[in-house]
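Listing S7. Sequence submitted for prediction.
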Amino acid sequence: MTDHVPDGPLSGVLVADFSRVLAGPYATMLLADLGADVVKVEGPGGDDTRSWTPPARGTASTYYLGVNRGKRSIALDLRQEGDAGLARELARRADVLVENFRPGGLTKYGLDYDTVSAANPGLVYTSISGFGSGAGARVPGYDLMVQAMSGLMSLTGEPDGPPYRAGISVFDVMAGNHAVIGVLAALRHREATGQGQHVEVNLMSSALTGLVNQSSAYVAGDVVPFRMGNAHPSVFPYEPLPTADNDLIVAAANDGQFRKLCQVLGIPEVADDPRFARNADRTERREELRPLLVEQLVRRPADEWFQLLVDAGVPSGPINTIDGGFAAAERFGLDPVVVVGEGDRAVPTTRHPIRFSQTPAGYALPPPELDEHGAELRKWLEDRRD
């Protein structure tokens, strides 16, 4: 193949990455971390996120840097037959192809599933779209649209306030994870049968399954959920509560945890009060119970309560900014930051979330510059073409 041979559980798997922006690049980055050889195919102008600034590290967009490590870049203009031919050759050799063009958008280049799989029947061809390849194919698939159309925004914000988006493109990330699951399952099927297949993921379906209990409230309970601020519809206490200085998340989600909470707060009698005996009682009477808890919590600062509650086995935590989140992960020994690349190309990035005892994730290559590996990849595709 080439001199680039990653280690890891997916070593030897060649991924042709025709995706842009977030869901697809996030998925292929995770595959690269696990040892896949990922070739990122970009148009002459590069991935859109290369220009999404601020913030930036030097001249590079931190958005782009965050989802593109471990890959090699080749710039191909698919409108030019020579470049389209190289793209088809890459697809013919690949084990996995990931794309997030609008459904049908690659057909005119001979890179659609039917055409590519005819030449490479073992290929796992993975398509990510906004609303599927049926009636929703014509609708552009952006995370913000899906947050709105799926109902997530109707659940986010204060009850009497406007709907809000989540602070990240949550369904892009979720769909990226679903794409990885689909790829791995299809590779297992290919290992058993020799057959590739078309794996399809769409943000809307990822959203509806990702709404979990809220989706189930509607589908199974015929209830349309509504915005409750930071409160939980089915559990109390499970929200921020004020202390002497800052709010503290308190998540006493079962009877045992609630009893421990009351003991730490110095009000054990509240746990014995029949009004609050079960979670359903506490949830129904949250407006009666909340003042009893807050009356005690405001006597100490949040950090003191956090230590006392955690020591007692009661889930709780401060509300951090991102830097505080990374600092907490460091304290917990999670080593959340890894450096990819060397010298001027060294880039701090977030560690792969999965730990393996035998085949750890690797971080072989920094996020590539546009067409950084174009010459070597063109030579490989041209010199060894059948």
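Caption to Listing S7: primary sequence and predicted structure tokens for the chain studied. The two ends are 14 Å apart (CA to CA). The longest strand covers residues 37-42.
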